[in-house]
Amino acid sequence: MKIIICFLTLFALSSACASERPILNMHSEREARSLLRGQASESDIDTSLHVEDSPRLAAGSFNRKQGPQMRFTLDAQQSYAAGSPVAIRFTLENLTAEPLYVLKWYTPLEGIKGRIFKVTRDGVEVLYEGPMVKRANPVRDDYVRIGPGESVSVAVDLSVVYDLTKPGEYRAEFSGRIYDVAVEEKTLPRTMDKHQGIDLTGNAVTFRVSRP
């Protein structure tokens, strides 16, 4: 009798283990299929936050190795008449969860006071003809506050500092350099030796200049 009971117990345990294996395999196959289709749900994959690997930032902080997270965009009309103003719009956006204080120097936020744009006509660079400003240390009014998730924008006329009177296909791109960004207003203004600049990426704009 003891032998029969032991045999039946072992058989039951073996059957239970065998019944579990297909369930686990089905789950892993479902996960693989979901990932291949790009349709994985939260129950299929690990959705926990891994801060070091995630490109997103935790609220109230930014990646101090990369600097404050910002981006710029340029907007322009499709075409302009030769001899007329060529206004394009520059927008600077704060992607962090805290306010940032941005030095306006050498950005369209102060106008065009240096070679901050590269402009080409039919692939050939158009020379910059505007002022080159020599700087002393900035003052508080040289900084603009951009709130969390907010942006600032301004329109500038490229034709004031570039010869855009010749018809053709033009392309304009911003240098992408911000010379100082601060997260604490009390540190402003900062002398040039304490500036913390960042390089941003953004789009270029193309437009046509036609005869009027």
How do the strands and helices of this protein lay out in sequence?
Blueprint: H1 2-37, E1 70-75, E2 79-81, E3 87-94, E4 100-103, E5 117-121, E6 124-126, E7 143-146, E8 151-157, E9 168-174, E10 177-178, E11 181-182, E12 198-199, E13 205-210
Parallel strand pairs: 2-13
Antiparallel strand pairs: 1-3, 3-8, 4-7, 4-11, 5-6, 5-9, 9-13, 10-12
Summary tags:
single chain; 212 residues; alpha+beta; Immunoglobulin-like; 5-stranded mixed sheet
Look at the structure and give the mean pLDDT: 76
Q: If helices are DSSP runs of H or I spanning 4 or more residues, what is the number of helices? A: 1
Shape: elongated
Q: How many whole angstroms does the radius of gyration measure?
A: 29 Å
Helix content: 10-25%
What is the structural class?
Answer: alpha+beta
Major sheet: arrangement of strands = 2-13-9-5-6
CATH class of the largest domain: Mainly Beta
How much strand? Answer: 25-35%
Number of distinct beta strands: 13
The oligomerization state is: single chain
Number of domains: 2
Largest sheet: 5 strands, mixed
In N-to-C order, the SSE pattern is: HEEEEEEEEEEEEE
What's the architecture of the largest domain, going by CATH?
Sandwich
> Uncertain regions: pLDDT < 50 for 5+ in a row?
2-65
Summed up:
The protein has one helix spanning 2-37, and strands spanning 70-75, 79-81, 87-94, 100-103, 117-121, 124-126, 143-146, 151-157, 168-174, 177-178, 181-182, 198-199, 205-210. The chain has two domains: 1-48, no CATH class; 70-210, Immunoglobulin-like. The protein is of the alpha+beta class and 212 residues long.
